[in-house]
Write a structure and sequence with these properties.
Blueprint lengths: L1 H71 L4 E2 L5 E2 L1 H9 L2 H18 L5 H14 L7 H10 L3 H19 L6
Antiparallel strand pairs: 1-2
Helix pairs in contact: 2-6, 3-6, 4-6
């Protein structure tokens, strides 16, 4: 009987040791897991901070680009309100085929401008110039791009100057716009 009591005690001790080792192992693994989770959270926070900093930098660059384009494009527009094309601006849209192509796509371009919902004439003007500047891959403008290359003209300038033609056509479709 002593031996069976000893065997039972030994078995119980063995089970307790196994349970303690298992609990210790699980606790150790959970601690490692928690450490990884904490590390990932720190990395995520750092990544978010970097993305926020990059967004700020991109916004700054966008503002700079707009101002630089306005400075460069000064020779295309008369400094009046509303903007009017200078002789150079008229020449650029004419010689590079913008006027001709515009006649075939103007209603499609007006629809694209309407989607931007300009609510004033100034807003329509700026959104028209920005819209055309963003449509460098617009299939109908491929011949203009080819002409720009052939003539040594800036394709983006042609489109931004063409934005004045779009603005004027938009005004005829939307006389309700306020100043």
């Amino acid at each position: 009987m002593e031996q069976s009591a000893f065997t039972v005690v030994f078995a119980i001790v063995n089970i307790l040791i196994t349970i303690l080792v298992s609990v210790a192992t699980v606790a150790f693994k959970l601690a490692k897991y928690q450490e990884k989770v904490d590390s990932l959270k720190e990395e995520k926070d750092k990544a978010i901070a970097k993305v926020d900093a990059l967004r700020t930098d991109v916004d700054t660059l966008k503002a700079f680009k707009v101002n630089a384009q306005k400075f460069i494009d000064k020779s295309l527009y008369e400094a009046k309100s509303p903007l009017k094309l200078t002789e150079l601006g008229k020449k650029i849209v004419s010689e590079n085929g913008f006027e001709t192509i515009f006649e075939t796509v103007k209603d499609d371009l007006v629809a694209k401008l309407e989607a931007l919902k300009p609510d004033t004439k100034y807003d329509a003007q700026e959104k028209a110039r920005g819209l055309l500047d963003s449509l460098k891959d617009y299939p109908a403008f491929a011949p203009i791009e080819a002409a720009a290359f052939k003539n040594g003209t800036d394709f983006g300038q042609i489109l931004r100057a063409g934005g004045i033609l779009l603005r004027d056509y938009y005004f005829t479709k939307h006389p309700e716009l306020k100043e």
